[in-house]
């Protein structure tokens, strides 16, 4: 496909996404209906679509138009990236149709990037500027600029199987080049060949897992020692429990309010060579107490919006409120499962303090038998996703219910 044909495809896909279809589904549907497109074409189209979704607000402003459409977003994106929309939108071959008189007129009177208001140039909904600035301080501009671009891909080397040097060599032999990430001891950042990971032997045999470096660093901060009984209370696909199990010998339990979310866990655990017991909600109290209970709670995901940019535009204050209530409820349920002297860990992939420090402060007020032991905040400027960890210790003298 020509570069122009890829842009025409991105325009069509973006129109479907703007009409409400999830981006992944639109990309898959397009690929099924256009089998002539090779893997490089599909990757390039995907990049266009995700770039436009991450930079949706600034791209629309730079197009000079007032209503989002696939064409408007790609026109604005091309402009910011130094391309000439008038040349690309030529109607020649498989290029998108030429600019209409109205589009050309809007483009000629559109503002330049340097004149865009801050929230637009940083591609943020207005209501999120204040809380994110409050959290990030002087890093606000740079961190939000980083969020406008593609996230790096990280692998976690399974410490139970290998070390970073040997894993990097095995990956290189399969065409995947990596470098050590300073963020976490077992993290490799993928430089080239990310598309080959899931079919590589290194991945299929459990030598490496896909996992963001900030998540890995947070797991490294957990007070894990061999022989512990550990519950991952919001286990989902099991990313955290597998990372914990790679660090220490222990008895590993996984729970999720929606057990279907744990469907892949047995396969992943087998690949990694660890045993994880899934337990239904009614068995959790029977298995308690635990030495460590991890709550990797549902959140806005504001630290991962580079990967899921649609979520940035659909989040509403009411949903944030609802999530903070769920987070409080989970902490309150999980604390009862911790043995006296044991630990309760709380994680989010959010940059918003309402979901992070504020929740822990509220919890500590209501539960004086716990004290804060460790707190870590990661922003995209650290290299990985935005992430938060708080580790709380239950008073030794507290009684177990
Ligand atoms: C952020 S995801 C967990 C991701 C997972 N730990 C990982 O590393 O792959 C949050 C999970 O919490 C689960 N969840 C939501 N409400 C819950 C509750 N009240 N109790 C336990 N789990 C809950 C969701 O089903 C979801 O799978």
Automatic annotation (TrEMBL):
<keyword id="KW-0808">Transferase</keyword>
<dbReference type="InterPro" id="IPR023267">
    <property type="entry name" value="RCMT"/>
</dbReference>
<feature type="active site" description="Nucleophile">
    <location>
        <position position="349"/>
    </location>
</feature>
<feature type="binding site">
    <location>
        <position position="256"/>
    </location>
    <ligand>
        <name>S-adenosyl-L-methionine</name>
    </ligand>
</feature>
<feature type="domain" description="SAM-dependent MTase RsmB/NOP-type">
    <location>
        <begin position="143"/>
        <end position="401"/>
    </location>
</feature>
<keyword id="KW-0489">Methyltransferase</keyword>
<comment type="similarity">
    <text>Belongs to the class I-like SAM-binding methyltransferase superfamily. RsmB/NOP family.</text>
</comment>
<dbReference type="InterPro" id="IPR001678">
    <property type="entry name" value="MeTrfase_RsmB-F_NOP2_dom"/>
</dbReference>
<keyword id="KW-0949">S-adenosyl-L-methionine</keyword>
<dbReference type="InterPro" id="IPR029063">
    <property type="entry name" value="SAM-dependent_MTases_sf"/>
</dbReference>
<dbReference type="InterPro" id="IPR054728">
    <property type="entry name" value="RsmB-like_ferredoxin"/>
</dbReference>
<dbReference type="InterPro" id="IPR049560">
    <property type="entry name" value="MeTrfase_RsmB-F_NOP2_cat"/>
</dbReference>
<dbReference type="GO" id="GO:0032259">
    <property type="term" value="P:methylation"/>
</dbReference>
<feature type="binding site">
    <location>
        <position position="296"/>
    </location>
    <ligand>
        <name>S-adenosyl-L-methionine</name>
    </ligand>
</feature>
<dbReference type="GO" id="GO:0008168">
    <property type="term" value="F:methyltransferase activity"/>
</dbReference>
<protein>
    <submittedName>
        <fullName>RsmB/NOP family class I SAM-dependent RNA methyltransferase</fullName>
    </submittedName>
</protein>
<dbReference type="Pfam" id="PF01189">
    <property type="entry name" value="Methyltr_RsmB-F"/>
</dbReference>
<keyword id="KW-0694">RNA-binding</keyword>
<dbReference type="Pfam" id="PF22458">
    <property type="entry name" value="RsmF-B_ferredox"/>
</dbReference>
